[in-house]
Amino acid sequence: MAILRFKALELVQNRKRIEVHPPSSKISDYYSINAFGIKQMKYTLSPDIFEKVDYAVQKGKPIDNNTADAIASVVKIWALEKGATHYTHWFQPLTGSTAEKHDAFYDVESELEHFKGSALVQQEPDASSFPSGGIRSTFEARGYTAWDPSSPMFVLNNTLCIPTVFVSYTGEALDYKAPLLKANEAINKAATKVCRFFDRNVSSVHAYLGCEQEYFVLDRALYTARPDLVMGSRTVFGHNPARGQQLDDHYFGSIPPRIYDFMQDFEIECLKLGIPVRTRHNEVAPSQFEVAPSFEEINIATDHNQLMMDVMERVSLKHNLKVIFHEKPFAGLNGSGKHNNWSLITNDGVNLFQPSSSARENLQFLSFFVCTIKAVHEHAGLLRASVASAGNDYRLGGQEAPPAIFSVFIGKQLTDVLDELEHNGNIKVKKGDNMYVKLGIDKIPSIIQDNTDRNRTSPFAFTGNKFEFRAVGADSNVAAPMTVLNLAVADQLNKFTSAVEKEIDNGMERRLAIIKILREYIKTSKPVRFEGDGYSEEWIKEAAKRNLPNVKDTPRALKAYLNKKSIQLYKKYHVCSEREMQARHEILLENYILKIQIEARIMGDLALNHIIPTAVAYQNKLIANANGLKGLGIDNGAVITTIKEISKHLEEVKVGVYEMIEERKRINKIEDVEERALAYCDDIKVKYFERIRYAVDKLELYVDSEEWPLPKYRELLFLR
Ligand code: ADP
Ligand code: MG
Asked: Which residues pair with 339 in a beta bridge?
């Protein structure tokens, strides 16, 4: 019987490019044509209705029924024109992907298409099979989705998609989006207050996000011939190819033609949906690439990232490719992350992380800059938890991606500025004195933006006018880390405001009060700043001395969601109650268990059904060969050695797999979710995965390539 691997290889040889025809040579001709947000509402709604929506969006207030009906009728006409036959509330449950349930506009009875305001604003999907961490008991399975008017609706696959939050009938958040919206509100309020120390006219501040999304692309047929990729998005076996990424010849190299077609195609789809994709390039590992949109308000950027991943999946199949977002699909090669570029921008368009040549603005810049560093220090554990997943565990701390230790990199120039501020004694100002010059913060040149000293090993780096949160996994919903970051910084900004106000009340001049508090923060948050090599052994030791958490796996990292400090933080800003935190914690653990369980099963199945039979068959051939040689009186020592090697590794695979199965049986009986997750981590993943893989990868080296069933790394990664 022909092996799937060879059929796939044959298909790859004969692949043709699938040409892409942009709707117009000018992107502006089709940008956003499939989206319906505030901009489109402005042109299509009557002015009084628009004013009401705009107000609701700005203030986060509900929309009344009449307004909703008016919007719905306009949206219906627009969507039908775009060819939509159905509508759906589009939401982001804690499964990590997006969910939708479609309803037809067409009503058989009246023979008309209907779409009421009530259907726009709220729906009740049967929520019983979405994870709720025990919040919804089965008899109260109802949850509802509620329209988020701040994020544009869109038409995709003949369906009008309405971005929504997903909450339980009793009001608890069951998704990623509801907490994010609340955290956004918290940072808006907190940052606006701080701005008012410097500029009375600031009325709001929004967090902005630009995600650089890394991904792998494989040929679809080769992908299909790898059950581990199909079932778990990760290769559990596979010997390193002779050539990996050591030549560094892929990074920024010319994009392979079929991949280029795919990129163009999905970018057009994204642009039509109003997703501002902008940058594309090859990444470091073979077959690894990156796409980055222009930054947007964080809630919209989050929705757009989820939507973009969805579009990429679909379009990749059309090109006989398969996009992989897993954080570590291939051992020995770089994994994929999602660098979250984050900044705070006022309603006047001032980026609060932009250093300036004006002294006053620099004090404002430093206030936000230092508070962010302090927030990362205060909540390092929670930030780590926010990026924890089974997939990201293979990446964080894997000698490539950022380490699991949370530190902040700011570059030499800003380190000097902070040192100056910290050590420059007690500043006394007389009228006319230029305190800013004395402090060395009168001018902070913005050349730091230009790559002067970027540190790729840092999980959280300042890059000129924004922070870059790099520890986020490629496959994750960015809402979780962005919720934590916004909350942590909001809280720090509020503490800063109170501390400064207290000094002012005690008679201190405002600028001096600000500097005094900043100086304290610079001192107390110093341990989180690190400019060196984040992958080095010394840093691990140093970080331990500095008391920075270094948590290597998800079950342990997730504990940070349940400590007092985190719960208080979430409660204080009404983002999640303690009950909701517990539920989330439980869901994330369950998810972790399932992932490891699936990987363990795939390993077992592949080993027993694919690897062992193939190796045994080959071993039998060698035995016949050894006997033949012996019969002819020829030395068969070399063959015997190979047979022994194969036997050794075969034994190792068998024993490993059977032991692992027994362990799983034991662990599955553990009642407590956290204990079970820890056992899956320590007693399954750590104990067996590497051990079994090592033996299988050795067998791959020995067995005749003609008989090996799984596409090899060199085929998966270098053929397109
Ligand atoms: P890099 O050199 O790190 O690749 P880029 O300038 O290409 O930096 O930007 C990477 C991402 O950062 C893009 O998505 C971009 O839109 C985003 N970005 C740039 N400036 C900001 C900002 N002020 N706030 C948030 N994101 C930003
Ligand atoms: Mg970057």
From this structure: 212
Question: Does the pLDDT value for residue 245 go beyond 80?
Answer: no
Q: What is the pLDDT of residue 99?
A: 81
Contact 473, 387 (CB under 8 A): yes
Q: How confident is the model at residue 249 (pLDDT cuts 50, 70, 90)?
A: low
Which residue lies with its CA nearest to atom 17 of ligand 1? 210
pTM for the whole thing? Answer: 0.94
Index of the ligand 1 atom closest to the CA of residue 463: 3
What CA dihedral angle connects 631, 636, 641 and 645, to 10 degrees?
-50
Pairing verdict, β 205-219 and 296-297: antiparallel
Ligand with the closest atom to the CA of 213: 1
Tens digits of per-residue pLDDT, 431-490?
666 667 667 676 666 555 544 456 778 899 999 999 999 999 999 999 999 999 999 999
What is the C-alpha to C-alpha distance for residues 524 and 376, in angstroms, rounded to an integer? 12
Q: Which residue has the tokens 């009950």?
A: 579
| Pocket-forming residues, ligand 1, beta carbon under 6 Å | 208-210, 212, 279, 292-295, 341-343, 351, 463, 465-466
Question: Which has the minimum average pLDDT: 121-130, 154-163, 170-179, 572-581?
Answer: 121-130
Cα distance between residue 244 and residue 249, in whole Å: 10
Is 356 in contact with 445 (CB distance < 8 Å)?
A: no
| Spatial separation of the C-alpha atoms in residues 137 and 687, rounded to whole Å | 36
**Distance separating alpha carbons of residues 88 and 75, to the nearest angstrom:** 13
> Which regions of the chain carry the CATH code 3.10.20.70?
31-175
- Our CA angle for 356, 489, 573, nearest 5°, is 140
pLDDT digits (tens, 9 = 90+) for 533-587: 888 889 999 999 999 999 999 999 999 999 999 999 999 999 999 989 999 999 9
From the list 586, 587, 457, 459, the residue with the least C-alpha distance to 532 is: 457
Is the per-residue pLDDT at 1 higher than 50?
no
Whole-number CA gyration radius for the chain:
28
Per-residue pLDDT tens over the stretch 284-313: 788 999 999 999 999 999 999 999 999 999
Q: Above pLDDT 70, what percent of the chain?
A: 92
The predicted structure's pLDDT at residue 139: 43
Residue nearest to atom 2 of ligand 1 (CA): 451
Closest ligand 1 atom to residue 293 Cα is 14
CATH superfamily, domain at 184-588: Glutamine synthetase/guanido kinase, catalytic domain (3.30.590.10)
CATH topology of domain 589-718: Four Helix Bundle (Hemerythrin (Met), subunit A) (1.20.120)
In CATH, 31-175 is 3.10.20.70: yes
Cα–ligand 2 centroid distance for 540 (angstroms): 24
The rounded Å distance from CA 137 to ligand 2 centre is: 44
Q: Amino acid letter at 420? A: E
Ranges of H-type helices in 45-146: 47-59, 65-81, 117-121
Report the range of poorest mean pLDDT among 274-283, 338-347, 519-528.
Answer: 274-283
Which amino acid is located at 65 in the chain?
N
- For residue 281, report the distance from its CA to the centre of ligand 1, in Å: 15
Q: Which residue minimizes the CA distance to atom 24 of ligand 1? A: 343
Tokens of residue 523, six digits: 């001192």
Q: How many residues does the chain have?
A: 720
**Residue ranges of the chain assigned to CATH 3.30.590.10:** 184-588
Confidence of residue 2 (pLDDT cuts 50, 70, 90): low
The encoded tokens of residue 275 equal 């997703």
